Amino acid sequence: MSGLLSSIAGAFRAPGPRQPRYIGAEDAALIDGWLMGGDDKGAFSLDQLMELAGLSVAQAVAKLYPLGPKLDKDPNGVKQKRTNERVLVCCGPGNQGGDGLVAARHLYHFGYSPSVFYPKNTPSAPQRLKKQCENLGLPLIAPPSSGASSFPMAPDAQDVAFRRAIENTDVVLDCVFGFSFKPPARAPFKTVLDELAKTSKPVLSVDIPSGWDVDEGDRDKTGFTPDALLSLTAPKKGVRAFVESGGKQCVSLSLVFHLARTDSRVCALPSAASSAGASSPSAFPPPPPLPSREHEHTADPRAPPRRAAPSPTSSSSTCQSTRPTGAKLSTLRGARSEASVRLARGA
Ligand SMILES: NC(=O)C1=CN([C@@H]2O[C@H](COP(=O)(O)OP(=O)(O)OC[C@H]3O[C@@H](n4cnc5c(N)ncnc54)[C@H](O)[C@@H]3O)[C@@H](O)[C@H]2O)[C@H](O)CC1
Ligand SMILES: [K+]
């Protein structure tokens, strides 16, 4: 486990063009378990991890699909829509769906007008996150939570509502399935994935394009290729071809350097050395130099130190494109920049 954590962080510190460490579904689940484990492990709560993931998602949207300037009302006094303002957040039944609910909340505060599609509203769903979206008045397409009385819905009501929602959005956020998806998709998500494949709207996929196999990519020929991808912590093996063929990719770094720092401490402990079967602590290579705490919050760990402390609006994700565009390729390969998003709504 310690080698895995170091290699993920090391991939982002290595000089030259980034060579990300791709991880499989098993390793992704292992890291998740480690982050949430107590004792000598990460000690994060699920809520914290979702909040970090969801904030990174919202920041990636702000970076890739920036909100246009505010426009004056039209002659009839009607508010005019800003570029990229409407974001349809498609949420699945697992933790990735929770990331989506968090992202919708942050997007609202960034000034976007998100709406949320949440078709699997089971008792185990993150009801508090959903309630927070409701409290902001976000349009929510979801069946009533169990126990609530309602009129019976037509079987295809959600499909119809989803199709209408996708027509009336500027950007689609794919938070349907993450690293625990096992193809093929079951209802009601089959329709959702078909619509994602068909739409001409830009889709930003979180962690893995939904419907793709986490390790093997679009093995089942879904026909869905997102406009861009946000990898959480480390890119998954299934997106290697997408990234290497020039797909737009962001990587959320919020946990990477935390993993590396904790890991270097674990490596330094004699007990960790003996439990790993090493004859002495020196059997572990010295941990690579860690970036300063300041850099942990910036997009580029190798960036020169800042003079002032990072603002709360600085991004925890870094974006790059490797799209092969001839002469621009080398500059793009190393390109990365820091998102700066305004957190106060309407500011
Ligand atoms: N450490 C991190 O990087 C964190 C990532 N997070 C996000 O969580 C997901 C992984 O969450 P998990 O709940 O394990 O899995 P999924 O979101 O993929 O959803 C599982 C969910 O889906 C159902 N399901 C599986 N296959 C199918 C299918 N073929 N048809 C229908 N339904 C299916 C399954 O039954 C479950 O209910 C990760 O990718 C990140 O986005 C966390 O926020 C924490 C930190
Ligand atoms: K996804």
Automatic annotation (TrEMBL):
PROSITE patterns assigned to the protein according to its UniProt record, in alphabetical order: YJEF_N
GO cellular component: mitochondrion
Cofactors (names): K(+)
Statement: the UniProt record of this protein carries the keyword Protein transport: no
Gene3D superfamilies: YjeF N-terminal domain
Entry EC number(s): 5.1.99.6
PANTHER family for this protein: NAD(P)H-HYDRATE EPIMERASE
Protein name: NAD(P)H-hydrate epimerase
The species this protein was found in: Rhodotorula diobovata
